[in-house]
Amino acid sequence: MVQTNSLTPYNSIMILGPTASGKTAISLQVAKKLNGEIISADSMQFYKGLDIGTAKATKEEQNTIKHHCIDMLDWNDTYNVANFRIDVEQICKDLSKKGKTPVIVGGSGFYVKTLLDPEFQDIDLDYTKEKEKLSDLLEKKYSDHQLYEMLQEKDAQLASSIHSNNKKRVLNYLIKLILQEKEKKSVYHSQFTLKPCIIVLCPERSVLYERINTRVDQMMQEGLLQEAKMVYDTVTNPHAQCLGAIGYKEFFPYFKQEKSLEECIDTLKQKTRNYAKRQITWLKHQVSGAVWYDPMKEQNLADIIVRLYQKTN
Fold first, then answer.
1. What spatial distance separates the first Cα and last Cα of the chain, rounded to whole Å?
2. What is the pLDDT, as a whole number, of residue 125?
3. Buried b / exposed e across 192-213, counting CB within 10 Å, b at 16+?
4. CB–CB of 39/88 below 8 Å?
5. Among candidates 22, 99, 100, which has minimal Cα distance to 55?
6. Helices 261-286 and 205-222 sit at what angle, rounded to 10 degrees?
7. Which residue in 152, 203, 258, 275 is a FRET match for 129, CA 20 to 30 A apart?
8. What pTM was estimated for this model as a whole?
9. What's the number of CA atoms in the CB half-sphere (13 Å) around residue 187?
10. Quick one: DSSP state of residue 21?
11. Model confidence pLDDT, tens digit, residues 71-100
12. DSSP string covering 143-208, please?
């Protein structure tokens, strides 16, 4: 998906940075100047109702500039990077046809890395549901002897390694071979060659930490505690992906009467600062070719980014 030839014009912008670095505000300005639409690469913003804790763009901001990959999942839903990559490619392709600029904004490293990975086709997709359907179909349609014969036809050496009466292993091997054949026939081909102008926003560490502390206080005023309580009361799966977000589970000890509200707020601020530090380290080591800016020191940063983007266009 990623085009590395520097002579190729940019066809998208990627605005990255640690939490509280000002990505949302700058991305809105850039998208407006370039007739663009925003694609969120924040894995927690995919979920409906997780608004305050994920610092999601407001409804007014979303009405001003169209956003994608926001509010598309329920709290107990799962969504993987392969799904994300395929969805983003289709969105970029559609925007390109309309003459619009994709502005990809995010802080979730794994999802960003997936978009920048030219070897995406090597990612193993989740075949759990297909395995279940195929298993039911084979067991209903064929006898044990017929299943073993099918396995012999597909891989005689593998079939000889197990007893014909070991139905469970015969079925597992047969399903695996069938799905491997299917995957080879349907190798994923990128629908859109991404040539992003990559921007990283990163204030000075002390300034960033102060912004994080202030933002948590502001979130509390906006109703973060009530949002966290909804998550606490509603999410039934303890392994639900949405619980991975910093900003919700930190309040669970308060709801359980194990800690005071002040302790939970302090924990949230500390964890968010630690997360921002890890994000900066990840960006430095995992994202090449990016242009870094301190948004606190640059005037008219949106104009600077637009000019940089337009250099090759």
1. 19
2. 47
3. bbbbbbbbbbbbeeebbbebbb
4. yes
5. 22
6. 130
7. 152
8. 0.77
9. 6
10. S
11. 999 887 877 777 888 899 999 999 999 999
12. -HHHHHHHHHHH-HHHHHTS-TT-HHHHHHHHHHHHHHHHHHHT----SS-B-EEEEEE---HHHH
Long-range contacts of 175-181 (CB under 8 A, 24+ apart): 175/131, 175/134, 175/135, 175/138, 177/151, 178/134, 178/154, 179/127, 179/130, 179/131, 179/134
Cα-based torsion angle of the residue sequence 231, 232, 238, 240 in order, rounded to the nearest 10 degrees: 10
SS3 content of the chain, % helix, strand, coil (to 5): 55, 10, 35
The angle at the Cα of 214, spanning 259 to 52, to the nearest 5 degrees, equals 70
Distance CA(192)–CA(96), nearest Å, equals 9
The two structure tokens encoding residue 74: 């329920």
| Token representation of residue 11 | 């066809």
Structural domains in the chain, CATH included, are 12-123+190-310 (3.40.50.300), 128-185 (no CATH)
**pLDDT the model gives residue 161:** 75
Compute the distance between CA of residue 198 and CA of residue 105 in angstroms, rounded to an integer: 10
